[in-house]
């Protein structure tokens, strides 16, 4: 239990605390401007202040705090990736998540569940074995298990062989977890604000100011702001913002849809993922089944939801859990996934001096929130890219050194 929650529960009085101060006017200049008030931008601001003493920072969010992909994801946390670079990166994030409630004194409702990636074909079994060996080699607890063990871990699954895609085995990732996405964002926001970081909502960046290929400030709908450095963390709008700054990102923006059911009595402990069926599901602390699948098959800057997605997903869900046939959906939504060709992020330096990018997260940005914030803050503060981020540099696409993670990101999560 987080210590802050215990202290709060034992108090005689419960004083209300405003997590984010009332908005003020923009100052003429800042040391660092962060474009994007989602999880990654908020985390970077917190670590800039906490780890590097840089507090003259402004977060500029065109909507409301954490109202983009941070509010639209399905909050799954894991590190069972395929490449050594990816496993190391996400493993650091998982370890940070495990201590985050205590570090921020803010309960993020972190819940370790275990993560089952189901295999329905011989090819999926080979990939699962490959991922398990890479994970174990790097100290991440994952293993390939077979149908009897799958049934023991999740007895609610339909293990019948009389279905279109029988379950042949699974990659079992023990540290797989979920957390409350809004709590993560507000925890970082509150702690950054207490250290002097300014958070400006309803503040849209409309232009990037440069001199001799060096960033000098930003134009906003509230005026011009000078700054020494800029960090871009705008998820699905990454390529648009990069174009505004004067360079290109190898990104396609694609809608990713998800939905939740009506609340049910808790019955599903592990997180279930099936690449062949294009479905993933976990049960929230409120009893809702949080479900999603693959990205839409076309590029689009829209967060509309569709009947086609819902019908397809429900068919696959009922193959795995036939007893859910009478359960109703509560709501459905979509986010914008910024997909790269190798299914790995783009982080670090850009062709513009002192302009940094945190992008290309596709469908896996939430799970990387702590490590991205910490390491991007280090990059901005020192001007040097840490070793753990080096594989995700932008120019890897020029040198053909991609970090191919498609095999570990076959569906949304």
Give a topology summary:
Blueprint: H1 3-9, E1 29-35, H2 39-52, E2 57-60, E3 76-77, H3 84-104, E4 111-112, E5 115-119, H4 122-137, E6 142-145, H5 147-153, E7 169-173, E8 177-178, H6 181-194, E9 198-200, E10 205-211, E11 214-220, E12 223-232, H7 238-245, E13 252-261, E14 271-274, E15 279-283, E16 289-292, H8 307-320, E17 329-339, E18 346-349, E19 355-359, H9 369-382
Parallel strand pairs: 1-2, 1-12, 2-9, 5-14, 12-19
Antiparallel strand pairs: 3-8, 4-8, 5-7, 6-7, 10-11, 11-12, 13-16, 13-17, 14-15, 15-16, 18-19
Helix pairs in contact: 2-6, 2-9, 3-9
What's a quick, concise take on this entry?
The chain has 413 residues and is α+β, with helices and mostly antiparallel strands. It has helices at residues 3-9, 39-52, 84-104, 122-137, 147-153, 181-194, 238-245, 307-320, 369-382, and strands at residues 29-35, 57-60, 76-77, 111-112, 115-119, 142-145, 169-173, 177-178, 198-200, 205-211, 214-220, 223-232, 252-261, 271-274, 279-283, 289-292, 329-339, 346-349, 355-359.
